[in-house]
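User: I'm putting together a teaching handout on how multi-component assemblies are represented. Below are the sequence lines for each component of a complex, exactly as they appear in our records. Could you produce the 3D structure of the whole assembly as structure tokens, so the students can see both representations side by side? Please keep the chain order the same as the input.
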Amino acid sequence: MSSVARFTENVQDGRRVLRFEGDLTLSRLGVLPARLDRLKGNGFEIDLSGVGRMDTIGAWVVHRTARDRSARIVGASEGAQTLLNQVSQSDQPVKVRPDPPPPMQRVLNQIGSATLEAGRTLRGLLAFFGAMLISFVYVARHPRRFRINAVVQRFEVVGVHAFGIIGLMSFLVGIVIAQQGAVQLRQFGAEVFTVNLIGRSAIKELGVLMTAIMVAGRSGSSFAAQLGSMKLAEEVDAMRTIGVSPMEALVLPRVFATVMMMPLLSFYAAIVAVIGGGIFCWVSLGIPPITFVQRTREVVPMTDLWQLLIKAPVFGLIISMAGCFQGMQVKSDAEEVGFRTTTAVVQAIFLVIVLDAFFAVFFTSVGWL
Amino acid sequence: MAVSEDQELIVEIKGLKNCFGEQVVHEGLDLEVRPGEILGVVGGSGTGKSVLMRSVIGLQRPVEGEIRVFGQPVIGRDDSELQGIRKRWGILFQGAALFSTLTVAENVQVPLREFYPRLSERLLDEIAAYKIVMVGLPPDAGPKFPAELSGGMRKRAGIARALALDPELLFLDEPTAGLDPIGAAAFDQLILDLRGQLGLTVFLITHDLDTLYSICDRVAVLAEGKVIAVGTIPELLALDHEWIQEYFRGPRGRAAEEAVEAEAESKAEAAQKQGADR
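Assistant: Of course. Below is the structure of the complete assembly, with chains in the same order as your input.
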């Protein structure tokens, strides 16, 4: 019953007439709009008497042709006329897409807003750090407000649940360092120094760095996503109105737990890396475990461990603060939660590596070689 | 107009059963939606109004029962077989469910692009433009993102997207929830107008008594896992059921009833005056 929309062009009594036939509905339009666009000339007549069904899109196509070609519509049924009136009423200049600014202006605009954004982030981060210190001091003076349960729960999520993955990663890194080092040192006949390489690099740098990256990916991102979703659902606002400070209830436990867990995880990661390297030395280089442990004790100074234990809590602070800060910045929609989560991880890892470089210079200059 | 010529039922639900684990939501539910009507679905919270709608549109697979839309069964059919039916209905979800990364105009174009990839860009833009005006959005709403719109405007944009393909059947899930009374009344009027202009059939879930009184042709009452009554409001009021009486005769129900009566009276008076003036 329904048929494809089409039109035929005739001349009747000296006038050009386009006679439409078939169903003027979206599913039956086919190439009709394109054909109409290619039509030349103006001032013809549009005869709708042969049209079956019609919907607003069909009516729009007819209306548009009539409007642009100053054509007259005849033979419309009552229903079709209603639809034509309807669409012609809705024919108003509507902007469909935002105007693209000129390229030069767009580039300047992007640079400017990126600069402003960077400044705003820096200021926001400082303000956030300050607010956190204030609530830390407040909690220190009113220890009963310290949320021990929340902290212990975070210990579990940040620390205990990360044991498996960090252990496996460190073990493999230890093996890789030992293997790569041994290949190079063998050229000088100095394979035995592989022990120095493993012990010092794992304890001084790798343990803490790899752990920081893993914690940023596991916990920093989840802090940002959790707090971001809570902000979207107005949970944070609800907390404030009840008189619970989000700083105390949400941020401090997370920061505290991460600061506490980072040294433990880093130490564990360093030891597992040394064990991994030791196993490689035993299997591949024939250095027995007893010798390996003795060598390690001789070549790794205590200051390496102090470095690890100083750096780890600082990194923990940075990771948890970046996560919580980005989470609390979420305002509009779900997309922003994702964006802020990514930013939190990128910021955390970047800051950790920059700070690690500063630490290296600092410790060298104080003589902790 | 885009109304089916024959008077077949638009939606037909028979013996529907829905469960979530142990909890039975619907059992032996029957409901019919007739062409061209606005059917209101009411029921207490948790009686499964939204679940009913989700079953009909294929988002919830019922345990038992038969659902026909436009005379075709929808349960247990492939996606490809359902495409033909999906083209013919539009859905407005409770929170409008606009795609947050697309502008309003792009949101309206999504179904068009999906089902009719050969439409020209120019026609797509024009269609989006008049749909936006048709649902009563301001002309500058096209390039805005959903996050920049108010709740009422978001719902209008949702309707514009639901109407993109000129559907015959429109599902509305609590369209006036969260709107102020003026916005809600304007939205009711919009639904009535669109029904009049486009010959839509509307399946409407609502808690809003004003909406029920002012635009619904029939109302279906959901309780005890089934539709306990369907009919016009006067028909429902004649029934001796505790929940129905409480729902429509409660303080809010009475207020809505009086408002509708007052409006009818003022219209009658105006008509009389006009007659007298002549």
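A couple of points students might notice: Residues 274 and 334 of chain A are 43 Å apart (CA to CA). The first strand of chain A starts at residue 6 and ends at 12.
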